[in-house]
Amino acid sequence: MRLASLLLALAIALPAHAQQATTTIPQSALDEVPALRERALADRTGWKVVESLTTEVGPRMAGSEADARAVEWAKAKFRQLGYDKVWTEPVSFPVWVRRGERAEVLGAHAQPLVVTALGNSPGGTVEGEVVRFPDLAALNAEPDGSPAGTIAFVDYRMQRYRDGHDYGVAGGGGIRGKGPSAAIRKGAIGFLMRSAGTDMSRAPHTGATDFDNGLKPIPSAALSTIDAEQLARLVVLDPHTRVRLALDCGMGGEYTSQNVIGEITGRGPHKDEVVLMGGHLDSWDPGTGAIDDAAGVGISMAAGALLKPLHPQRTIRVVAFANEERGLFGGKAYAAAHSGDIAKHQVVSESDFGAGRIYSFNTNAPASAKTAVAQIAEALKPLGIEVIEGEGGPESDVGAISQLGATWASLSHDGTRYFDYHHTAEDTLDKIDTKDLAQNVAAYAVFAWLAAQADGNFGSAPKAAGAAKN
Amino acid sequence: MRLASLLLALAIALPAHAQQATTTIPQSALDEVPALRERALADRTGWKVVESLTTEVGPRMAGSEADARAVEWAKAKFRQLGYDKVWTEPVSFPVWVRRGERAEVLGAHAQPLVVTALGNSPGGTVEGEVVRFPDLAALNAEPDGSPAGTIAFVDYRMQRYRDGHDYGVAGGGGIRGKGPSAAIRKGAIGFLMRSAGTDMSRAPHTGATDFDNGLKPIPSAALSTIDAEQLARLVVLDPHTRVRLALDCGMGGEYTSQNVIGEITGRGPHKDEVVLMGGHLDSWDPGTGAIDDAAGVGISMAAGALLKPLHPQRTIRVVAFANEERGLFGGKAYAAAHSGDIAKHQVVSESDFGAGRIYSFNTNAPASAKTAVAQIAEALKPLGIEVIEGEGGPESDVGAISQLGATWASLSHDGTRYFDYHHTAEDTLDKIDTKDLAQNVAAYAVFAWLAAQADGNFGSAPKAAGAAKN
Q1: Nearest beta carbon to residue A200 from set B201, B226, B430
Q2: Fewer CB atoms inside 10 A, N or C side of chain B?
Q3: Do A233 and B430 touch (CB under 8 A)?
Q4: Spatial distance between the Cα atoms of B421 and B354, rounded to a whole number of angstroms
Q5: From the CA of B422, how many Å to the nearest CA of chain A?
């Protein structure tokens, strides 16, 4: 009975053509791989794109003046790299503006604390006693109204992992995203958190938060890891330690940015089908957004450009997504605009986890594509990449179209150092290792090339509303 | 003839009693050393003092509200550590205040640059083309008036050495100190420099500059090393790159702070003579002044406290100097107040180069003390310390009294990482290694103990005005 249920569930989960003919990659395509890999490893295009975006545009927060410059930059860069077709698609969203931020300990141990406002935080100045919680569970466990009038301080120390999974605890899906609303429910007048970062530095990590409907937002900010440790010591010295948090930031109207899209047009009978790669064009404001995500833009632009002389059968589509940082707006707009073309997406992927070496390849392609997937995995092996069960997923902006049924592939970067710099002033060009970046480009180029040349599809199909697909 | 001149010079340079009886350290004092060394290595006092000062007072810029709190802290800490006598001596100086600082690239590549105003810089907003010079010599070589109306940018990359000697090129005695005046002479309206630091980070290095008499000061600031590299790239892209530099800072009246002095009173016939150790109590404002110079305060306070139960013959005097950072005011005031007591200073020393392991011992004691100096060196050897010819000198605040004839000793810290953090927001408690700090305390305790117990002096004697002493 339980086995029968499982088989039934699998039959429902797999798209119809999963039982169709096996997808394979022709030998002629595989024969091109060694030369392509070597060419990519020796190519400087990825690096030059990252250098150009981070230097010429610099920080480019969604909705800022630099957002528009970044769009123009991306259009020009696609053309310069020889892309056959370049266009933009509108992405609208509410703007959030940061003008200034200050925090200071008051009283006998008066001193400034380095903070960064969380994206979507309201402005305002609050002053109160600090109540420290080791994690979000401790804040949630507090009786309602108990820290009323205080500033809640969630002091969770994010741990370092290759796959960065502790960001799930500390980041947008955890403390940073849910902490402010939890604090409001308990009656707090302000929210502070130890940065969602694995560094020990004075550079605080920003990032978007959310306020649950019906709650009145409170000023919410992240302390640098060092300032969090200082405040923790001060709270031990004096449990009545008071802090003033003064944020000058807030929502600032609507803005329409653009997803910028470049294509290397396919030449075969499947040229209407696309292999999609991408990165996001926007960045947070303290740094120049090198690892997050000029790297993804550079990797995908360079990989696509490398495929042009090979005349791929399917079209290589590279998307520089707008406003990923404040709510995946670019990815959602892309999914909405292309919801009628799900099956034409051979496979979708995004690089949005820095520029560490890629160590794992994964996809949710169905069993019918397992031969092709194994062939791609084999072609990636010389780059030090293996298939690790359960790693990866549809990254950032391709999440939305994956939800609609597009098959995703992921090439997982080593994120051991990623959260040292993520969303901080230290996310700058010097953090990118040119050799690692070239390996990233090689991995994407090989993957995209083989996906474009496959005989057969990877299972993308419009999904019935509510149907589950991992 | 040349040899005769040399001998004559030597005879003048050496104080009169250099030809006197040999100074030695009695065996009973040497016998105490192993136990003292081990006690110091196991002692946590140095660390606790550094933690207390950096946490409870935090940043303590000379003349700020925190300056006064630091003085009270030091008095209380000396008493708490069991010092027999605690007093203060006034130190007056002009105050310099930092309120804010901003720099931004204008035009097609508009973006903020992270800067810190140099101490003593005037406030003001200037806007102009950036002219980059690889070093101070290049700026000095420019024809007068040639960069008129521009912002001079000296982009020297300071190199990393154990003894930190490249700070001589980049720091107060080099680009930071002399660059602004050189720029003014050439007609520049603003001065920017790559930080005098060996890090690669967004934390700029502040520090005092000086303006030569008769020149009208211009806004002067240091870019973080990463921002300097960004600006260098932008200047290559567009030689007409314009920058706006807006500093809100400037001189702010007179202030009287205090040198805070604690003594372990000697018990022998030489109890009126003092062995002086110290550090400086003030710090720059971006960090909490852990390596610069809570470390020196902690090391000397802890070393003195360790000697109390040994009942030293001479008095152990520990000085927490006021306002070292903006012009050695504490050291100069100390020298002026004690100029009549030069011979009573057995030897003077200061720890103002962080908390890296001490690797070298040196002194300008005359030949008559060479036996005692060799005995001290021998006692320091188990701590990994050797005598390296030409290393060290009278550090910071003991320079002034050394100039008056007091014999100096120096225990040189390994400064390999010192200029990664020096004068930045990253100069915080976490940069101090507890084991290294304990080694520092052990070295100072052993040195001060043996100097206090010596039979005979180390050659301190009032110097005829203008006489040379190295």
Answers
A1: B430
A2: N
A3: no
A4: 10
A5: 14
